[in-house]
Specification:
- GO terms for molecular function: lyase activity.
- InterPro entries: AAA+_ATPase, ABC_transporter-like_ATP-bd, MetN_ABC_transporter-like, P-loop_NTPase.
- It is a peripheral membrane protein.
- Residues 5-236 form the ABC transporter domain.
- The chain is of the alpha/beta class and 236 residues long.
- 32% of the residues lie in helices and 31% in strands.
- The chain has a single domain (3-105, 171-235), classed as 3-Layer(aba) Sandwich (Rossmann fold).
- The protein has helices spanning 49-57, 84-93, 110-119, 125-138, 155-167, 185-200, 212-215; strands at 3-16, 21-34, 38-42, 64-71, 75-78, 95-99, 173-177, 204-208, 221-226, 229-235.
- A six-stranded mixed β-sheet has the order 6-7-8-3-9-10, sandwiched between helices. Strands 2-1-4-5 form a four-stranded antiparallel β-sheet, covered by helices on one side.
- Helix 3 (110-119) runs parallel beside helix 5.
- The radius of gyration is 18 Å and the shape is globular.
- The chain starts with a strand and ends with a strand.
- The mean pLDDT is 88.
Length: 236
Amino acid sequence: MANILTIENLSKSFNLHNLNKHIKAIDNIDFFLQEGEFVGITGKSGSGKSTILRCIYRTYLPHAGQIKYNSKRFGQIDLVGASEREIIELRKYEIGYVSQFLNVMPRTTARELVRNAIVEMGHEVEYADHETEIMLDHFELDHSLWDSYPVTFSGGEKLRLNIARAMVKRPRLLLLDEPTASLDHASKVKVKEVIEQLIKQGTTMLGIFHDLEFMQNLCNRQYHMEEGMMKTAAKQ
């Protein structure tokens, strides 16, 4: 099976000028994802897990290393050296990102959030409306919430909306940044059901979690982070 993502010697540091400090967040990270896999990363807070995902999504620009992504749009591309235009295109059409936080424009309804994601890809409004209803149904968001503002939603509802907004673009690669943090057991079960559906649909996923029980029987492989370095890799 071909690799969709290959990471080599990835490093990222931060300079805290006000404290005159240099902090190495991740150092010489190497790992890969094959198409259709779900790979998990564990580790304590501050170990560098989120930094890896943000480098892949290019929220952070790494200081060293390569992130080789096998794109349908551009072929083999190094996300570290990709242009801003290429990154925007990949975020639109191929790479999704879901975190425990839902950051949206104020006074934008759940329906509008998902519909706007489709329209920005160039689709007609009628098509976007139809696909939005299918997607909100698929992720079991109550119909009474579709035209409400997400600020009123529960944590589980916000997460399902976040995943729906990412998946409506049908990304080839989905990055999950601690999406189950602070959720109750019932909401975690619902999230797990959604992830299992996505795996069956062939989406490749890289997720970071504190909850090891949640990851059981879900991940193909697990990596563990300690102090910015990948210490171990394990099969489930």
